[in-house]
């Protein structure tokens, strides 16, 4: 195969980007943008690799029966699967998830024909798609509750819309069939406003709560001066937006379908690094509420989900939840599918609970990467306690507010990196749970697209069956999920089942929920050990001696050395002085890189008093012996 060659292909699959995938007669893989499953095409090779090639579509010889002629949106290229019928989209996405999990995680699902299929096989559930009655009959359209649009005024040409795929170009968009009517209405009102007043606005976000009909509009501006310019014309902007949202219609009782509740301005407060002109570092995002409330509120109705994704709406299982959403809050963009996704999470948590020996017991549920607490709060009624961990401080505040709004008192949220906080959280859980619950801990993982930190997976695995007995993992990237599953399986967890959920119809993205359980041992070995003196017995003093000998040494930090010196000698010493003395002893000092850098700068040496104090601390912590200390002090002071 060579560049420029023409090949005829039958498209058999599609990539995440929506490119058709076909094979030549000798099995060479060719990616063809613009082609879909079932098309027969003639393609021209543009970039040839060892086992595959990229190409351009030259001719569609035969048209696929799976094409969706009703979907004709070529504005920004963000809906590459839209040209396919929805049932075919679901089939392709389910196969992609399954194939990636089998290939990357090394699992073989129940009806897999792979030769290495294990005796224990996990279950792959049917993909959960959208239904025709969703979104007031729009089905898999108008499903997004969040629209992020860019704004450009270059050359006097006002554009409000979406950036084209793999480009900075803004596609001016009057309407997008994935967005609710509120997004188009708000964008049109903004066009009118900016034609009247040329304003320094570079983007806008429209959030819509489908459960309550509330609308939030957030404008991105350049700086504080931009805020003041928009504030000067705020009354006109509010009037235009309010009228546009109100005119979208009303219910039979006269209540408007949507209400404008919040308008905010957002800008980045930047600073210069080391005061150098032109040296800019990312600053904190500042929010200014222009009109209305700081937040909007959505309401969800959840239930446990059956295997097919159907909701079981019996009164005992229905959970109604309210969530407060701020401009920066993460919230799943597909409300209808979010309710089904969380229903599956509830189902998997229930399956974990069924393993408990005490039928009345409830588990402790860890909600890692918890965001504003949506998932953890949705399963709080199943738990003895919910502990959420999130690195974004504002999200932790929102999570606590959402707990209060819903009257939930058994949820607590911790600010920090999940991989760092879990080591501190797990020991406390096991101690507290011993009196109140006979269930092990369930961990819910809902990481960003890149997947979980390896350090977090190691911490969970270290806890094992004595700590985290079950894991419910929610992923928006099957490849990252497959990688993480392989790590967890290698640490003794077994994949029980997986359910794909189509959160993003017409795009190449798909969500997946999986349940893992820590494996029970296949057998037990009983060993009888007698302690004491005599033949065949283990002397107790020898055990204590070996335990002391091999006890891991506590890490001695610069902070501990400084605290020791201040407590004993009553004065403080600079980190660079400690580094200088450690260097003189030949000890490593690179756990304090700033101190090492300071040693390169001209400065005074530590006084005799401080050298002796630092040496005393090093002896105290067992880093040197007294003989070394005496030798160094004499040599060092002579040099000074």
Give the topology.
Blueprint: E1 6-14, E2 20-23, E3 29-32, E4 40-48, E5 52-62, H1 86-105, E6 123-124, H2 134-137, E7 146-152, E8 159-163, E9 170-172, H3 181-196, E10 201-208, E11 214-221, H4 224-232, H5 234-246, E12 259-272, E13 280-292, E14 296-302, E15 319-325, H6 335-353, E16 364-368, H7 374-378, E17 385-390, H8 393-405, E18 411-415, H9 418-436, E19 441-445, H10 454-463, E20 468-475, H11 478-490, E21 493-501, E22 511-518, H12 540-549, H13 558-569, H14 575-585, H15 593-599, H16 608-620, H17 626-639
Parallel strand pairs: 3-5, 6-21, 11-12, 16-17, 16-19, 17-18, 19-20
Antiparallel strand pairs: 1-2, 1-4, 2-3, 4-5, 7-8, 7-10, 8-9, 10-11, 12-13, 14-15, 20-22, 21-22
Helix pairs in contact: 1-11, 3-5, 9-10, 13-16, 14-15, 14-16, 16-17
Secondary-structure-based class equals: alpha/beta
Strand order of the largest sheet: 6-21-22-20-19-16-17-18
Helicity range of the residues? 25-40%
What's the story with the biggest beta sheet?
8 strands, mixed
Residue runs with pLDDT of under 50 for 5 or more positions: 113-119, 272-280, 306-316, 432-438
Shape: globular
Whole-angstrom Rg:
31 Å
Ends distance: 74 Å
Mean pLDDT score, rounded? 84
Measured by DSSP, the beta-strand proportion falls in: 15-25%
The number of strands is: 22
Helical element count? 17
Q: What is the subunit arrangement here? A: single chain
Characterise this structure.
The strands form 4 sheets. This protein has an 8-stranded mixed β-sheet with strand order 6-21-22-20-19-16-17-18, sandwiched between helices. A 7-stranded mixed β-sheet has the order 9-8-7-10-11-12-13, covered by helices on one side. The longest helix is centred in the first third of the chain and has 20 residues, at 86-105. The radius of gyration is 31 Å and the shape is globular. β4 (40-48) and β5 form a beta hairpin. It contains 17 helices and 22 strands. Mean pLDDT is 84; it is low at 113-119, 272-280, 306-316 and 432-438. It is of the alpha/beta class and 640 residues long. The termini are far apart. It has helices at residues 86-105, 134-137, 181-196, 224-232, 234-246, 335-353, 374-378, 393-405, 418-436, 454-463, 478-490, 540-549, 558-569, 575-585, 593-599, 608-620, 626-639, and strands at 6-14, 20-23, 29-32, 40-48, 52-62, 123-124, 146-152, 159-163, 170-172, 201-208, 214-221, 259-272, 280-292, 296-302, 319-325, 364-368, 385-390, 411-415, 441-445, 468-475, 493-501, 511-518. Helices cover 32% and strands 25% of the residues.
């Amino acid at each position: 195969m060579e560049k420029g060659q023409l090949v005829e292909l039958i498209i058999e699959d599609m990539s995440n980007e929506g490119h058709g995938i076909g094979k030549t007669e000798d099995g060479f893989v060719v990616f063809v943008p613009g082609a879909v499953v079932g098309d027969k095409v003639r393609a021209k090779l543009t970039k040839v690799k060892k086992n595959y090639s990229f190409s351009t579509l030259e001719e569609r010889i035969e048209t696929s029966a799976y094409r969706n002629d009703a979907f004709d949106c070529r504005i920004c290229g963000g809906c590459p699967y839209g040209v396919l019928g929805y049932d075919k989209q679901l089939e392709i996405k389910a196969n992609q998830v399954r194939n990636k999990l089998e290939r990357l995680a090394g699992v073989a699902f129940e009806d897999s024909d792979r030769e290495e299929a294990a005796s224990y096989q996990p279950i792959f559930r049917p993909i959960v798609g959208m239904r025709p009655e969703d979104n007031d009959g729009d089905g898999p359209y108008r499903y997004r509750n969040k629209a992020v649009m860019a704004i450009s005024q270059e050359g006097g040409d006002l554009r409000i819309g979406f950036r084209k795929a793999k480009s900075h170009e803004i596609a001016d968009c009057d309407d997008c069939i994935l967005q609710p009517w509120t997004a188009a209405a708000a964008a049109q009102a903004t066009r009118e406003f900016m034609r009247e007043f040329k304003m320094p606005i570079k983007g806008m976000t429209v959030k819509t709560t489908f459960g309550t009909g509330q609308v939030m509009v957030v404008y991105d501006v350049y700086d504080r001066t931009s805020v003041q310019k928009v504030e000067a014309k705020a009354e006109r902007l509010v009037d235009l937006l309010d009228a546009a949202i109100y005119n979208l219609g009303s219910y039979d009782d006269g209540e408007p379908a949507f209400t404008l509740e919040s308008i905010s301005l957002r800008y980045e407060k930047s600073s210069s690094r080391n005061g150098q002109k032109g040296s800019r570092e990312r600053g904190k995002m500042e929010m200014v509420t222009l009109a209305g409330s700081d937040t909007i509120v959505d309401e969800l109705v959840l239930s446990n989900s059956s295997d097919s994704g159907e909701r079981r709406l019996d009164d005992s299982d229905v959970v109604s939840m309210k969530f407060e959403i701020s401009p920066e809050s993460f919230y799943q963009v597909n409300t209808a599918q979010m309710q089904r996704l969380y229903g599956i999470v509830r189902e998997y948590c229930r399956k974990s609970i069924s393993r408990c020996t005490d039928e009345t017991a409830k588990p402790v549920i860890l909600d890692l990467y918890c965001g504003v607490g949506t998932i953890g709060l949705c399963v709080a009624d199943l738990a003895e306690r919910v502990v959420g961990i999130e690195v974004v401080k504002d999200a932790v505040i929102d999570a606590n507010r959402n707990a209060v709004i819903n009257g939930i008192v058994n949820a607590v949220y911790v600010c920090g990196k999940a991989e760092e906080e879990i080591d501190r959280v797990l020991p406390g859980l096991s101690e507290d749970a011993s009196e109140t619950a006979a269930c092990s801990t369930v961990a819910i993982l809902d990481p960003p697209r890149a997947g979980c930190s390896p350090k977090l997976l190691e911490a969970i695995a270290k806890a094992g069956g004595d700590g985290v007995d079950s894991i419910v993992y929610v992923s928006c990237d099957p490849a990252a999920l497959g990688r993480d599953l392989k790590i967890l399986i290698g640490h003794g967890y077994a994949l029980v089942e997986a359910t794909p959920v189509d959160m993003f119809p017409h795009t190449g993205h798909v969500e997946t929920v999986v349940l893992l359980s820590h494996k029970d041992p296949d057998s037990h070995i009983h060993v009888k050990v007698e302690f004491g003196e005599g033949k065949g017995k283990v002397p107790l003093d020898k055990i204590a001696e070996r335990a002391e000998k091999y006890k891991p040494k506590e890490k001695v930090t610069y902070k501990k050395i400084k605290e020791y010196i201040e407590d004993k000698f009553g004065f403080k010493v600079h980190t660079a002085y400690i580094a200088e003395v450690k260097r003189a002893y030949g000890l490593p000092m690179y756990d304090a890189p700033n101190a090492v850098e300071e040693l390169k700068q001209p400065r005074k040496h530590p006084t005799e008093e401080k050298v002796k104090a630092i040496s005393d601390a090093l002896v105290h912590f067992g880093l040197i012996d007294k003989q070394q200390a005496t030798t160094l002090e004499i040599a060092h002071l002579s040099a000074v």
